[in-house]
Specification:
single chain, Rossmann fold, about 45% helix
C-alpha cells in the first residue's frame, strides 16, 4: 500500500508537469518572445512597443547614479532629446498615455529609494486631463512598476501566464523587428531613424498623407484630478529642492481642433495658478505643417529640439518666431484669447 505522503507528492508533481506542458506555448511567447520587454534587458530588436513605464522604473531603481534629471510625459514627449539639456544628466521617462498622477508616483518612488533629483520637466497636453491611470494594472503595455516586493513577483507571474488573444498573437508577428528601442537605457527614447530618413526623402508624399486627417481624441474630463496631481507634484519638488518645469506640447492642428478646446483653455488657466509654464500649443507654423509630425499626434525630434532650445536658451526658430511662449498667471487670459483668435482666423475662408 502506497503511503499517502508519496501519493500527494506524486500527484502534485504530475499536476505541475501537466500545467507546465499545457502552458509551454504561452511561456514561449510571453517569456522568450517577450512582447512587452519584461524578461529582457536587450531592446535592440523588438516588434512592438514594450512597457516603457515598468522597464524604465526597474532600470532606474537599480542604477541610482546614472541620471539626476528627468523628462516626463506621454509618448509625445519621446521626441524631446534629453541630451539637449546641459543643467543635469537627463533621462527621458516618457511612456504611453502617461498622466500627471503617474509622474508624481514615479518621482515619489525614486526619492524614497534614495535618488537625488535636480530637475524634472513635465510635458503636458489634452491627454494629461482626458484620461486617468485607472485599471493600469490590467493593461500589459502600461502596467506600472510596483512598490512592494510581493507585487513585483505577482507582476512577473501575470506576464508569464497571460494568455494572449489570437488577434494579438497574429498582429504581433505581422510587425517587423525594429531597432528603435536600442537606446532604452541610454536616453530613454525610441529613435526611429528609418522613418526619419523616409520623411526626408519623400517630403511631399509624407505631407499629403491622409493619416493627418485622423484626429486623436480624449473623451474624459479629469481636469480637477490632473490639476490636483500637478499641485501635489509641485509641492513634492519644492520640498525636495527639485527644479520643476511644465511644458504644453504642440498638438497637431487636426487633433487640437477635434478635441474640446474650452476644456483645454480651462486646463491652461488652472495650470497657470500653479506655476508659470512654456506653451508651444495652438495654431502656429509648426502645428499646421504635417512635415513636423509623424501623424496627427506625435511631433518629430526636430520639434522637440526646437522646444528644448527655447526652454533652456530662449532660442527661437528664425522662421517661426511665435513658437514658444512663457505663460504666467498674469498673462494666461491674454494667451488664451490669442489661441481663440488663431482658431477664428483659421476658420475664415
Amino acid at each position: 500500500m502506497k503511503k499517502p505522503i508519496y501519493t500527494f507528492f506524486r500527484s502534485t508533481f504530475l499536476v505541475v508537469l501537466l500545467v507546465f506542458i499545457g502552458y509551454s506555448p504561452v511561456f514561449y511567447f510571453n517569456i522568450y518572445e517577450d512582447p512587452f520587454g519584461i524578461f529582457t534587458s536587450n531592446f535592440s530588436a523588438k516588434r512592438i512597443e514594450p512597457n516603457n513605464h515598468f522597464i524604465k522604473m526597474r532600470y532606474l531603481l537599480s542604477n541610482k547614479t546614472d541620471f539626476n534629471s528627468f523628462i516626463f510625459g506621454n509618448s509625445r514627449a519621446n521626441n524631446v532629446d534629453p541630451k539637449k539639456f546641459s543643467n543635469g544628466k537627463y533621462f527621458n521617462m516618457y511612456y504611453s498615455l502617461g498622466v500627471p498622477k503617474e509622474h508624481m508616483d514615479d518621482i515619489n518612488l525614486l526619492l524614497k529609494d534614495g535618488y537625488e533629483i535636480k530637475n524634472v520637466i513635465v510635458f503636458l497636453d489634452y491627454g494629461s486631463y482626458t484620461m486617468t491611470d485607472t485599471n493600469r494594472t490590467k493593461d500589459m503595455l502600461r502596467r506600472p512598476y510596483p512598490i512592494e516586493s510581493l507585487d513585483i513577483f505577482k507582476t512577473y507571474i501575470d506576464y508569464a501566464f497571460q494568455i494572449p488573444s489570437q488577434e494579438f498573437y497574429e498582429s504581433y508577428y505581422k510587425n517587423p523587428v525594429v531597432p528603435i528601442y536600442t537606446n532604452m537605457f541610454v536616453s530613454g527614447r525610441a529613435e526611429n531613424a528609418a522613418v526619419e530618413a523616409f520623411i526626408e526623402a519623400n517630403k511631399e508624399k509624407h505631407i499629403s498623407d491622409v493619416k493627418f486627417t485622423w484626429p486623436y481624441l480624449g473623451y474624459q474630463n479629469n481636469i480637477s484630478g490632473a490639476i490636483q496631481n500637478l499641485k501635489d507634484l509641485k509641492q513634492l519638488c519644492y520640498k525636495n529642492q527639485i527644479n520643476l518645469i511644465f511644458v504644453m506640447n504642440p498638438t497637431h492642428k487636426t487633433t487640437y481642433l477635434a478635441n474640446n478646446q474650452e476644456l483645454y483653455f480651462d486646463f491652461m488657466k488652472q495650470l497657470a495658478t500653479i506655476s508659470d509654464y512654456y506653451d508651444f500649443s495652438g495654431i502656429n507654423k509648426i502645428t499646421t505643417n504635417n512635415y513636423f509630425y509623424y501623424e496627427a499626434s506625435h511631433y518629430r525630434p526636430i520639434v522637440g529640439n526646437a522646444m528644448a532650445d527655447f526652454i533652456q536658451y530662449n532660442r527661437r526658430i528664425d522662421s517661426i518666431p511665435d513658437f514658444g511662449f512663457v505663460v504666467t498667471n498674469q498673462n494666461v487670459g491674454e494667451r488664451i484669447l490669442f489661441h481663440k483668435q488663431q482658431i477664428e482666423k483659421l476658420a475664415k475662408p
